[in-house]
Design brief:
The structure holds two protein chains of two kinds.
Chain A: H1 15-21, H2 24-28, E1 58-60, H3 62-68, E2 72-77, H4 88-102, E3 106-111, H5 114-126, E4 129-135, H6 140-147, E5 152-156, H7 160-174, E6 177-178, H8 184-189, H9 192-201, E7 209-213, H10 218-232, E8 242-248, H11 253-260, H12 286-295, E9 300-303, H13 305-319, H14 325-339, E10 348-353, H15 378-392
Parallel strand pairs in A: 2-10, 3-4, 3-6, 4-5, 7-8, 7-10, 8-9
Antiparallel strand pairs in A: 1-2
Chain B: E1 2-11, H1 20-27, E2 30-39, E3 44-53, H2 54-67, E4 70-73, E5 79-80
Antiparallel strand pairs in B: 1-3, 1-4, 2-3
The chains are: A alpha/beta, B alpha+beta.
Amino acid sequence: MCDFDFGPLEAAYDYDAIKAAISRDILRSRKRRMWRYRELLPIDGEPTIGTQVGFTPLVRADRLAKKLGVRTLWIKNDTVNYPTLSFKDRVVSVALNRAKELGFTTVACASTGNLANSVAANAASAGLKSYVLIPADLEQGKVLGSLVYGTNVIGIHGAYDQVNRLCSEIAGKYGWGFVNVNLRPYYAEGSKTMGFEICDQLDWRIPRHTVVPMASGSLLTKIHKSYNELIKVGIVDSTPFSVHGAQATGCAPISHAMKRGTDIVKPVPKPETIVKSLAIGTPADGYYAIHAMRDTGGSCEDASDAEVVEGIQWLAEYAGIFAETAGGVTVASAKKLIESGKIPHDEEVVLCITGHGLKTQEAVVGKCGEPRLIKPSLREFEEQIYAKDTAAA
Amino acid sequence: MKETQRLWLMFPTKLVTRPIIWELGKDFNVVTNIRQASVTEEIGIVSLSLDGEREDIKKAIAWLEKEGVKVEPVEINTIEG
C-alpha cells in the first residue's frame, strides 16, 4: 500500500535490462509453465513453490464461435490449472515464493472459495504454515476444499467489512504474509502470466479482443499490463487490442460505472448473485480496470443469474468445458458484446475462463435435465430412446 | 495505546455535502489526515488516516458507520472468492 495516498503499489521492472536478456527463442526453450516469463514477475530467485502452475490450454472453440456469432473464438482454459483448478494458483504461487524470499513462515488469506483452496494447497506442498479465514456462515462444502490440505480454517462471526478489518490488523500485528493484503503487489502480478501465455500460444501476437471476468478488477488490469509489457520488451508487435470486462448483474459496480461514463465506482453494499467468486462490492482495482478498458477501446457487460447459467451450459455444450459461475459470466457478457457490435462479428476474441465447474455445481443442479431411465432390455432401449431420438432428429 | 489506522471512507449521496471529517476531529479525540479524495454529487470517496488511542479510534469508526459512512481498511477486498 502506498504510504502517500494509500493506493495500491505496483511492481516496477527494468524493461531495458529485460529486453536485453530475453527473446522469443529463450522463452520458448523453457518449460511450458507460468515461470517461463519469470523476468517479468516480482521474485528475486528461481521459483520453488508452484513450479508446475500455468500453461493451461488455449482452445480454439469453433462451435461456440458460431453460436456467439463471431469469426474466431479462443478459450483460455484455467479450469485445468494446477493444482486447484483455478487461475488463483498463478497469483498464489507468486505470492508464496515472494513470502518465502521475504522470510514469512506463516501465510494466510480471507476467502470464500478458490483463493483459500489455492493458499492451502500450495502452502501444504511448500511446508508453510497457513491460516484461512472465512465468514462463519460459509457452507461446509466450500470449506472442505481447504480443510483437506491441513490448513487452519478459522470461521469469523461478523459482517464482511469487519472481517476485512480484522485481517488487516492480524497482518500488521503478527507479521503473517496475507497473500492479498501485505503481499498483494506480488500476488497481483501473477495474473499477468495468463496474458503472457495467451500471446505465446497465439505464436507471439496479441489477440484483438479479450474478455475478462471482474471481481476486484485486478485480473483485467494485469492482462492489459501483460500485453503492454510484451510490447515493451520486444516480444510481440504493437497491434491494436481491446480488453473488455464482465461482471454479474447482482454485483456489477465496475460495469455500472463504465455504463454511466464515470470512473467513480459506487460500492454495492449487498451483492446478490450466484456468482460468489465475483461478488466484491468494493473493487480495489475498479478505477484502474475502467481506465484499462477505456484506453484500449474496450467495453463492459454484466449478466443476470439466468444468463450466467446459460453461459455455463453453452460453454459446456459447444466447447466441452465445464466452468464455474464466473465462466458463465464471461460467456454471457461476450454474447452481449458481440450482439451489440462492441466486439465486431468478423474479429477474433479470447475468453478468459478462470475456474472449474465442479466448484460451483449447485449453480446448474436441476438445470441440465435428468437421465432417462429404462429397464435393462434392448426392446425398451429401442422404444424409449432410439425411436424417439431418431424421430426427433 | 496510540496507533494509526488507514481507512477508505465512502459517503452516500445524502452525506456528500456534510462536513463529517470536521465533525469527527471536533467530537472525538483523533487526528484526521486526508490523503486522497474524490467527491461527486453522487458519492464521496476519501482515504483517511486516523491517529489516536485505540479506543478513541474505535469510537470514531463506530460513529462514522452509525451516520451512514461506509468504512473499510485501505486494504479493501481482503475477502476474495
